[in-house]
């Protein structure tokens, strides 16, 4: 009788997969470098790795998983489409699934916007929707330039990168994004935001500024990758006034802020503005790839075929997205995110008082950032950012079964993006593990002299 070989130990499976990944995948891989885990099962906030360890996931697919992993309503929606025999690939043809998704999406939009809106299904990623938005406004206005903001992040394709904060030598005029912490004008708050607005007006109205009338202004209501920086509501209203008065379309990039993340279904609702274009992706697909732009009908100057793409008709994503949108709306999860997010921010600010290395705690809803600085340097927003300490905190969080990510201009901002289904008990567990990780990282820094990056 042949003898069966024993199954490999979980740790061996885990290490083998990671080893093969490092040999086969591109050097451009990102999350896999800082999070050497191999997820095999997941539900809600929790991920189980191939090594048997369990993690609390406060990355949520970079904000994609509004309902956490494998929520029952999402799984049921996907299963229903599969069992129905409906085609899964339909290009841009109309289907009952697509019609239901659009209907649910429009029910969540600001009413004034939805009444006059058109929708374009783009490629599967948010950056594809950004490209479509740029193409749309350039076609509609006949102009080519863009207004964008320092610290912005809009995606990884060429046009999206042009509009992001790290770009150079592009057709984009860079404007100051308002920041209370590290304000570029040195004053912060409403005063700093007003100075930024005045600078924008001056640039547009000065015939010698060198800035031609642009095709659009594109902004994030909360900069995510830029370090979790919420724009003041008053500043958002000023940008709407400035653009409307000059017939400049306003594009709101809600890829990460949408579907309840910030405590309103769409982040523009905090300020009450109505943009001309909204860029939507991530959570609208219920964990599957889906990206759209929704825009004012007056901008619909495209000819048939002016913007196309093979994978615009993902039926499973539309079904999962419609189920997610409905669940968030019916269960008032945006309000839940606002309440629980405020509670978590208060807890983190209390923690900050015991840790000089915390320069700032900020966020909106369940989009939270903690900026780490050199504890022995100057205080306030002149303290140098501490990216190495932030990386150490991320590692100590992982050691304790908590998945987080970093962002900000110097990768010194710890970002928390838990699902909107987070319970009170889970929120406490997240903060407890984060607090323990902070202590461990600081202790290690004192022993090993973790450096900081010059500001």
From TrEMBL:
Cofactor(s) this protein requires:
pyridoxal 5'-phosphate
Q: Which PROSITE patterns match?
A: AA_TRANSFER_CLASS_3
A GO term, aspect molecular function = diaminobutyrate-2-oxoglutarate transaminase activity
Pathway info: Amine and polyamine biosynthesis; ectoine biosynthesis; L-ectoine from L-aspartate 4-semialdehyde: step 1/3
Q: Give yes or no: UniProt keyword Transferase.
A: yes
User: What Enzyme Commission number(s) appear in the record?
Assistant: 2.6.1.76
Q: What keywords were assigned to this record?
A: Aminotransferase, Pyridoxal phosphate, Transferase
Q: Name one Pfam family in it.
A: Aminotran_3
Give the similarity note.
Belongs to the class-III pyridoxal-phosphate-dependent aminotransferase family.
Do you know which NCBIfam families this protein is assigned to? Answer: dat
Q: What is this protein called?
A: Diaminobutyrate--2-oxoglutarate transaminase
């Amino acid at each position: 009788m042949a003898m069966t070989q024993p199954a490999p130990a979980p740790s061996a499976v885990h290490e083998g997969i990671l080893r093969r990944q490092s040999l086969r995948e591109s050097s451009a891989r990102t999350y896999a470098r800082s999070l050497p885990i191999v997820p095999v099962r997941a539900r809600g906030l929790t991920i189980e790795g191939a090594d048997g360890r369990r993690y609390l996931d406060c990355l949520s697919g970079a904000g994609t998983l509004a309902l956490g992993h494998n929520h029952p309503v999402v799984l049921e929606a996907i299963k229903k489409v599969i069992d129905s025999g409906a085609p899964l690939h339909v290009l841009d043809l109309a289907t009952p699934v697509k019609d239901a998704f659009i209907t649910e999406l429009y029910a969540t939009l600001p009413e004034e916007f939805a009444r006059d809106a058109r929708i374009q299904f783009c490629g599967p990623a948010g950056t594809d929707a950004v490209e479509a938005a740029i193409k749309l406004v350039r076609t509609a206005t006949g102009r080519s330039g863009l207004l964008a903001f320092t610290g912005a992040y809009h995606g990884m394709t060429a046009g999206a990168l042009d509009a992001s904060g790290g770009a150079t030598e592009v057709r984009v005029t860079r404007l100051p994004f308002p920041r209370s912490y590290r304000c570029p004008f040195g004053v912060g708050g409403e005063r700093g935001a007003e100075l930024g607005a005045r600078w924008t007006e001056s640039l547009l109205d000065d015939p010698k500024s060198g800035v031609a009338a642009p095709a659009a202004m594109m902004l994030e209501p909360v900069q995510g990758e830029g370090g979790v920086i919420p724009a003041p509501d008053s500043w958002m209203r000023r940008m709407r006034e400035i653009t409307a008065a000059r017939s400049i379309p306003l594009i709101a990039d809600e890829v990460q802020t949408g579907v309840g993340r910030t405590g309103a279904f769409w982040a523009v609702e905090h300020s009450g503005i109505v943009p001309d274009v909204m860029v939507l992706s991530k959570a609208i697909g219920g964990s599957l790839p889906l990206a759209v732009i929704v825009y004012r009908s007056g901008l619909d100057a495209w000819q048939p075929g002016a913007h196309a793409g093979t994978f615009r008709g993902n039926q499973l994503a539309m079904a999962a997205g419609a189920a997610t949108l409905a669940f968030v709306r019916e269960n008032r999860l945006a309000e839940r995110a606002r309440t629980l997010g405020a509670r978590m921010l208060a807890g983190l600010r209390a923690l900050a008082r015991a840790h000089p290395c915390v320069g700032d705690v900020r966020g909106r809803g369940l989009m939270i950032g903690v900026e780490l600085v050199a504890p022995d340097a100057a205080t306030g927003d002149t303290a140098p950012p501490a990216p190495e300490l932030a990386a150490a905190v991320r590692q100590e969080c992982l050691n304790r079964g908590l998945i987080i990510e970093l962002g900000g201009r110097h990768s010194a901002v710890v970002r928390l993006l838990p699902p909107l289904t987070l319970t009170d008990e889970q929120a406490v567990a997240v903060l407890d593990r984060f607090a323990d990780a902070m202590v461990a990282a600081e202790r290690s820094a004192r022993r090993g002299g973790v450096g900081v990056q010059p500001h």
